[in-house]
Amino acid sequence: MRPSAVTETIAPSERVQGRVTVPGDKSISHRYAMLAALADGVSTIRGYSTGFDCRTTLACLRALGVDIAWDPDRVTITGRPDGFVQPDRPLDAENSGTTMRLLSGILAAQPLVATITGDASLCRRPMRRVTSPLTTMGARVDSNDGRPPLTIHGARLHGIVHQPEVPSAQIKSCVLLAGLGASGTTTVHEPAPTRDHTERGLQTFNAQVASESGQVTIAGGQRLTARDVTVPGDLSSAAFWAALAAGTPGGSVTIDGVGLNPTRTTVLEILRRAGADVEVHVDDPASAEPSGTLRVAARDWNDFSIAPSEVPGVIDEIPALAALAAMMPEGRTFEVRGAAELRVKESDRISCLAAGLRAMGSQVEEFEDGFRLTARRLHAATLDCADDHRLVMAFAIAATRASGFVTILDSSPAAISYPEFFENLCGLTLAGA
Ligand code: S3P
Fold it and tell me: Does 26-230 match 8-24+232-431 at the fold level?
């Protein structure tokens, strides 16, 4: 259950300074919970995301008969390697595309019939990208013309070779998780590299996965083994603090314990190109999911852009980067092309980002596959964030540079990935006041 709507007013802030930790990585949390649910034995997950999306995954797994205990410092999951139980009601993935798409892959190989539904935003999002390969593997999946709810009739699946039309870690992961429960081998050819947490997670839970030159292969029928794992902080959440520091003259923020998986760090390259000082210290490069300390400070403000080939690696950080661009001195530009996928995220992130940043004063030209922002003086505004967590956080960051108070009509979606966001924003802006 999400919190009820909250109106938040952001005051202009002259200084940004401090040290912060962010909630556990959302992508890794979902995966560790699902893999633990399939594994033989009892797994513990430390650092599990406090975000509502990841609670949603736990609620769905519980409805499938998985025993889960949530203590303050860890989630304990007793796996059901011999199969989930038939749920007695539809599973509610709420706002979480990752829950719906990855769980669909797992359920397709289970001998049960399960419906997964979601909130209004999720029910608008495209699912044919997962239902089509699952059908080819032998499952039957009913949908609302390619959108949720999905009713998955599990079956004995057979491995396939699949090339998704769009680069997507969720599609790759759905097919690999279905492949784990299928006969034969399953291969995904990635049109461009995407985050590899599923591959790493499968290996951590004792499965063999081969990744080589853009293709990932898994043999079906492997049994997972329970593990004690730790989720690093979410770099996509840290990106908001990076943008806040980089966009505020004299700003500096240090983020401890943040995930630094190389398939996620393109954002750091882009921050550097935009003129920020970015220092990274990796604590244990050999760990399953590398993590460390990130320090970002304002130095310079350059025009910057994201090349289409970089987009899959930075897809979730584009709202934070757009906020940084909006905070820059007048006339600086930021351009993104090749990012049509942004239109099918929790909201249409091209038009909703453009609308919110324009309302604060930025000049934004919208393209079908991206946008070009020209920084202008930001001013007071009242913003609708389209019920999208990353837009709430992006607008809140940009708002700190506005000349007047910015009101966010409903800031509660931030809790989807970052319930502590406004508390931390207050700490980082007050610390330097
Ligand atoms: C995610 C993959 C990305 C990302 C999403 C999380 C994941 O989605 O936008 O927030 O955990 O695999 P796509 O795979 O649809 O690009």
Answer: yes
Annotated catalytic, 316? yes
Q: What are 257-297's pLDDT values in tens digits?
A: 999 999 999 999 999 999 999 999 999 888 999 999 999 99
Per domain, the residue ranges of the chain are 8-24+232-431, 26-230
Atom number, ligand 1, closest to the C-alpha of residue 173: 12
The architecture of the domain spanning 8-24+232-431 is Alpha-beta prism (3.65)
pTM of the model: 0.98
Q: Whose CA is nearest to atom 4 of ligand 1?
A: 316
Residue 155 alpha carbon to ligand 1 centre in Å: 26
What is the mean pLDDT for each group of 10 consecutive residues in the chain (433 residues)? 86 96 98 99 98 98 98 96 98 98 98 98 98 98 98 98 98 98 98 98 98 96 98 98 98 98 98 98 93 98 98 98 98 98 98 98 98 98 97 98 97 98 95 49
Burial class (CB in 10 A: 0-12, 13-18, 19+), 1: exposed
Measured from the Cα of 172, ligand 1's closest atom is 14
Q: For residues 194 and 180, give the distance between their C-alpha atoms in angstroms, rounded to a whole number.
A: 19
Distance of CA 379 from the midpoint of ligand 1 (Å) = 32
Instruction: State the catalytic residue, choosing from 25, 234, 316, 388.
Output: 316
CATH of domain 26-230: 3.65.10.10
